[in-house]
Amino acid sequence: MSRDHDAMGRPLVAVTGLGVVTSLGRGVADNWAALTAGRSGIHAITRFPTEGLRTRIAGTVDFIAADPMVAPMLSERFAEAAADEAVAQAGISGDFPGALFMAVPPVEIEWPQRQALAEAAAPNGDVTYADLLRAAGSRRFDDWHDLFIFGTVADRIADRFGTKGSPISLSTACSSGATAIQLGVEAIRRGEVEAALCIGTDGSVNPESLIRFSLLSALSTQNDPPEAASKPFAKNRDGFVMGEGAAALVLESAASARARGARILGYVLGCGEKGDGFHRTRSSPDGAPIIAAIRAAIDDAGLHPDQIDTVNAHGTGTPENDKMEAMGCLAVLGERMRSVPISSNKSMIGHTLTAAGAVEAAFSLLTIAHGRVPPTLNYAVPDPAIPLDVVTAARDVPVRTVLSNSFGFGGQNTCLIFGAEPVR
């Protein structure tokens, strides 16, 4: 076993660049300072009128210019900002020497633009199918198609950074950002690329999204004060708060990173993924897929459950998700899990949806770098059914390994293991 390969003989995957944008700020430094200080980025929505909506708060990113009602445009701006920071930190100039794996929101044109298309098709009467077909063949529709189809976001980011090969766009619900990293890890391990730019991005806070999630009873309705709404693992949790942002990771084979003298920020030691066909939104009540994903990630890293130092929780604050995540962690880590620090940054930034797995990967690596576990806000009423060591104020502890969980609607479960050093 060489210093550049893991115990299974695969190339070690190093992280050499990080970039983050959330409602806490632009850049790693601002985000980490706010996160560890326990400052919330959740606030009242000002982007559009919220009268009549049950939920009127979110962790929106309001400081990056784009049409706030066009989610792909926001998602692209967030991704570009995060990738700029990550690539610069990695010390890469010119074209990026590897592939792009990008998590983006689901593909669809949003309702304001659908309505405009219909009105253009038949401005003086009822819209017929023939009218819509005629409008779909128009130049205006072509322009919208290029703007709204999220795969074109990855195309434009690939052009911007000069990545190699066809960019991969993916959407696996709330685990998408983690899945993008997993694909980059697998490509490097197979020897297909020496580097990968992995991004998760989401700018989906709009009336339609709020209404859809409200109809699922998934969102918190505790609007006042906004910063107290997201309560992961607390007994009085009542749902998640939507958030926005992006994170980018530059992954490289350890051999490639060392050869060019790059600073290694940490390693992606393991990936675990398990699909769950139980329900479109709910998790299997026995927790088997979540348990399998956690166990697979630890096994893939060549670790024993006792070697996990802290857990970066999916921790959405919905009654069911938090219960199922606790069940999964306790099943794999055993009684020791009751004393393993666990924290959810969604209490401060909200749930960034397709970006969440990537944002939390960046925060996991920063936890290792600083030896500090960020807090979980609003954990004033512990849930006796969730016997976990929830961190409520930033805690300084030695951290060599982090388990980062991402569990999405439709049973998309992806877990990643990050480490300060290779496992020997």
UniProtKB/TrEMBL annotation:
Domain Ketosynthase family 3 (KS3): 10-420
Pathway: Lipid metabolism; fatty acid biosynthesis
GO cellular component: a single term: cytosol
E.C. designation(s): 2.3.1.41
Record bears the keyword Cell membrane: no
CDD domains referenced in this protein's UniProt entry, alphabetically: KAS_I_II (cd00834)
GO molecular function annotation: 3-oxoacyl-[acyl-carrier-protein] synthase activity
GO terms for biological process, alphabetical: fatty acid biosynthetic process
Keyword Acyltransferase: yes
A Pfam family the protein falls into: Ketoacyl-synt_C
Entry keyword set: Acyltransferase, Transferase
Family, per entry: Belongs to the thiolase-like superfamily. Beta-ketoacyl-ACP synthases family.
Protein name, per record: 3-oxoacyl-ACP synthase
Taxonomic lineage: Bacteria, Pseudomonadati, Pseudomonadota, Alphaproteobacteria, Hyphomicrobiales
